[in-house]
Amino acid sequence: MKTQYKSNQKIQTSAIALLNLFFFFSASEKAEAQNNAGIIGIDHVGINVPDLNQAIPFFSDVLGFKPVTQLGPIPLDAGWKEANHINPATGAVTIKMINAGTGASIEVFSYANNKGSKVHPNSDDIGASHIAFYTSDINESVKYLKSKGVKVLGEPFLTPSGDTAGESWVYFETPWGSKMELVSYPNGKGYEKSNAKTVLWSPKNAVKKESAADFDAKKNTEIVKNHLKIWNEKDETKRTDLLNQFYASDVEMVDRHFIAKGKDEISKFIIELQTKNPDFRFTDKSVETNHNIVRLYWQFGSKEKPAVVSGMDLFVIENGKVQKLYVFLDGKE
What we know:
By secondary structure, this protein is α+β, with helices and mostly antiparallel strands.
C-alpha cells in the first residue's frame, strides 16, 4: 500500500503546528520505502492447503485468527498454469485471506481437483518453508495446542548463546501436515544487547491496539520523567540500562535538523551534548498527557543559569516505552 500526505493549510497557532508535524512524520514514515525497489514490508505469506474446510477452522478455531476475504473459485487458463508451473489438469483455485493478529496476513490457497504433488517437502528440500508465530509464553501455548490435539514436534528449546540467545522455539504440525513454529523471546535476543544498529522486527514490539494501559497518564508521566534521567546520566552503563527500559528498540527522535533512529544514535547524541556542556543538566518545567501522547516542557543549563536553553518534547508512548520523540526549541522557527 502506498500512502501520501499533503497539507496546504497554513499554521496559525503552536498547537496546530504540533498536530501538523505529528501527522506529517507519521505519514511519511509509513510511506518511506526500505530499499530502492520501493518495498515497505511483508503484506502476507501464502500457503497451499488440500482442503479449505479443514484449514480455515484450524486457523480460526485453534489459532484464533479471522478469515476476512475470499476470491473464487477462479478457473485458471492454460497460459496461467504454464507460467505458474501448475499441472494442466488442476481445477479452479479458491483463496482466503486471514488476519493473523499483529503482523503479516496469511493467504490460503486451495485448488479443486488438484493434480499437483500431495507430498509435503522435507525440511531440507528446496522450497520447504514454515510460518512462525510469536507467543509471550511458549510453554502455555504448547500446552494449549496439545489440548486441541495438535502434534507438537518435541519440547521448546531455549537458545543458550549467540545472536538468538534467549529465544525459545518449537515446531508443530497442522492437520494437513504443514510444519509451523512457535517462538518466544520476552526479554529480547542476544544480539540486541550490543545495541545493534538494525533490530529485527518483532510482533512483541509492534503497536498494540488502544488499551487502558496505553492511556495511563501516571505511568506515561513517569516514563517521561525517566527520559530526563537518561539525558542527564553520564555513566554509560546506567544510561544504557535506562535506554533499554524506557525507549523502544526502534525509537526515533525527530529534531529540526536531523532524525536519530534507534537507541544507539540517540545515545551518541547525548554523549556529544554532555561533552559540549559538562555542567549543564535538564530539568522539567511541566508535563501534560493526552492518551498516549505526552508533552514535556524543559530547560537546560547550569546550576547558576538553569534555563540557558528551553523547549518542549512531544512523546508518543507505545507498549510502555518511548516510540517517537519530537524536539522543539523555544525561539527556533
